[in-house]
Amino acid sequence: MSSIRKISILLIISISLILFFLGSSVYYFLSNYSYADFYKRLEARVSVAEKYHFESNQKDAQVLKNIRDEHLELLSNEREYILYCPSANSMKQLADKNSLPINFLTLVYTQQFANYQKGDIFYHGKKRETPKGFYFVIVSAKNYYNTHHLILLKKVLLAGGLISILIIIYFTYLFSNYFFEPINKIITKVNSISTDNIHLRLDENKNSVEINRLTTTFNNLLNRVEIAIETNKNFISNASHEFGTPLTAIIGEADVALLKDRTSVEYKETLQKILKQSERLNKISQSLLFLAQIGYKENKLNYAILRTDELIMQAYEIMNQLIPKNNIEIDFDLLPENPKKLKIYGNKELLILAITNILTNACKYSSNKPVVVSLASTNNQIVMIFKDQGIGIPESELPFIFDPFYRASNTAAYDGYGIGLPLTQNIIKIHKGELNISSELHKGVTIQVKLPVAEL
Amino acid sequence: MLNKILIPIDFRIESLNTLKYCLEERKQEKSTVVLMYSAYSSDSITELLFYNPAKIIEALVSPNFTDAINIIKNKYESSLHSFKIELFHGLDRNAFLNFYGAQGIDLVYLPKDYCLKPHKNGFDPIPLIKKSKVQYREVAWTRDHDTNYKDELNQLFK
Description:
The complex is a heterodimer of chains A (456) and B (158).
Chain A (H helix, E strand, L loop, with lengths): L2 H53 L2 H14 L7 E7 L5 H8 L3 H10 L1 E6 L2 E10 L2 E10 L1 H49 L16 H50 L5 H33 L7 E4 H15 L5 E4 L11 E4 L1 H18 L5 E7 L3 E7 L32 H11 L3 E7 L3 E9 L4
Parallel strand pairs in A: 6-8
Antiparallel strand pairs in A: 1-4, 2-3, 3-4, 5-7, 8-9, 9-11, 10-11
Helix pairs in contact in A: 1-2, 1-5, 6-7, 7-10, 8-9, 9-10
Chain B lengths: L2 E6 L7 H10 L5 E8 L6 H5 L3 H8 L2 H13 L4 E9 L4 H11 L3 E5 L14 H6 L4 E4 L19
Parallel strand pairs in B: 1-2, 1-4, 2-3, 4-5
């Protein structure tokens, strides 16, 4: 069920329930009140009748009659009974004669006065004792108010309730359409976006904060998707370029060599050039394979508890062999006192490879200017910071530097083919770490690697 | 003996260098540190009614700042007995001396070259502290004079 329908049904049901309770309580209390009120009116008539018949002389009787005629309106079907009852046994006879309910007479007899209702006729009676025996003073009448007004009220309440429910249904329909229309708009717009027109973005809706958040979320997602697609395109062009350059060199060399007969020395020279380019090709394809493998080999890796300071020292020794002229400075100033906070759970070879990769880049692109490696640890993360003073990375190219084969525009003078950094990032990623890079052009690059502290 | 040290901060990582050098100097003894952030108190009645220093501090602390504090805490685990962050709303010398007395401070450490860059509603309390004639020490560190200032964890490192 769509949420529009759900919301409207919920709203309609709850409002109808409220209306129902309101209507029925109005009806219930009003009818209760009308009964009590009617008995009171009967009671007044009974006491006037009693006074008139038993307590007044001729003059008072006239006054009472006037009062009754002037102030007590005649109820519909009003009847007055003054019944003489010599003994309790004659009650049955009395009742039959005046067509009064015998139960009512018994009630009056036992309780002195009583209310009674039979059908739509209401009775109020009182027992009056005299020396000769006792009398029943009874007034009966039809409750006109009850039969007419309450029925009208019932009709009004029912009709009003039905009409308001209809109005509510109409309004919930209108409102839900009004609120869900922007969502429908978003759906159609998002549906229309495909790889061809990925640059399209949703329009912001200023009227609703929630919808606005939804559109910005979608737009951010689209931004990321666009970057991913861009990355893919870049990868293909970069890869074909990387593979193409040595291949062109090989083809060119071979072509030139085949133009005419050459001496064996010349052939040897050509073959050596071809061999060099083929080795380069081989290296590229191998590192590419390695890069791809790390992604899915994750569960086959050998994990162990390692100390990060030892990893850095081992990487430093490797660097001394690879680039003897390096200028790496290791800063353990902020090393935690507790060595447990330096331990991580990971694969030693891969982590050393990642660190040496970062250090090689730092040395290479700074032409062996000082590189500072710092190590520290927060409560749950180990922080490694690599600072160099090299050529830096242009800010506009920072989002792409983790793409395989991507090389920043200012690196033409340096050897390399753009595999190291993506490889490093993959290694950090499978260790559940983070790699952040910040850079200022011509000033250097700062790489911050965060790895989770091993839980011992 | 436990020393209570006051360090003014601006919730930027670079200002924590004062803490770092202070603890480096006092490695041999145990210290309690009060990091003080100075801000003007609000003049809105509703804000004063719902005044909650913990909330104000929480809003100012960035995840990187917490990381930086944890790094220092881990480094000087044995000499740093405890630390807390306090808000200071006073404007004159007496208010500062009151704060100084109430917190039971023994010594103030100030950055020598670094100028606190407080956030909105904050102010730099260093001139006030220097004027208050309390005992203070200044520490200096080499700074890269960045034109575009970024609040990054590496400002704590060399």
